[in-house]
Amino acid sequence: MSDFDYVIVGAGSAGCVLANRLSANPRNRVLLIEAGGRDNYHW
């Protein structure tokens, strides 16, 4: 399992900007999580 310095839940506009700013420092490990839509495609 990996360790992260920051966990951001939600990859909307603010979440992406925050992840971008935090990951600008190469010493920060950032995890960005997005729920996404439902996967109803069977093929």
Description:
The structure is a single chain. With 43 residues, this protein is an alpha+beta fold. The protein has one domain (1-36). The chain contains one helix and two strands. Strands 1-2 form a two-stranded parallel ribbon. Helix 1 links the parallel strand 1 (6-9) and strand 2.
Descriptive labels:
43 residues; alpha+beta; two-stranded parallel sheet; 2 strands; 19% strand; elongated
> SSE string, helix = H, strand = E?
EHE
Approximately how much beta-strand content do the residues carry? 15-25%
Global outline: elongated
Into which percent range does the helicity of residues fall? 25-40%
End-to-end C-alpha gap: 31 Å
**Unreliable residue runs:** none
Question: How is the largest sheet built, in terms of strand order?
Answer: 1-2
What structural class do you assign from the helix and strand content? alpha+beta
Biggest sheet layout: 2 strands, parallel
- Tally of extended strands? 2
Number of domains: 1
How do you describe this structure in short?
The chain has one helix at residues 13-23; strands spanning 6-9, 30-33. The chain is of the alpha+beta class and 43 residues long. It has one domain (1-36).
Helix and strand topology:
Blueprint: E1 6-9, H1 13-23, E2 30-33
Parallel strand pairs: 1-2
